[in-house]
Amino acid sequence: xxxxxxxxxxxxxxxxxxxxxxxxxxxxxxxxxxxxxxxxxxxxxxxxxxxxxxxxxxxxxxxxxxxxxxxxxxxxxxxxxxxxxxxxxxxxxxxxxxxxxxxxxxxxxxxxxxxxxxxxxxxxxxxxxxxxxxxxxxxxxxx
Length: 143
Hints:
- With 143 residues, this protein is mainly beta.
- The chain is built from two helices and eight strands, in the order ββααββββββ.
């Protein structure tokens, strides 16, 4: 990975994108067998800047429980849907299920990445994955 000076003269340096690493990462996101693992891990630094767009659909029957689509915008304006989110029904506070699949079934499904839950007056949110809840474990060490 090569760092180049920031063109605006700021004190930090920006990564110079590596097209080979970018196309490899994009292939894993679009066509990979382990899409969930790729999306749950950090984006490689050498990919450079990515443009992500969130689109809300609340038309028709989705007025009360809208669903959201996270698009990854490739060069030349091509959008690829990578994640979906939908407000869960019968919850008093805002609670969204995040999935790889557009059909939202159950949070125990393999395609589900986690959930986003509002805390308090819907101005703070907590993101949960499908990992273990450390407060419910018998013994938990911070090592």
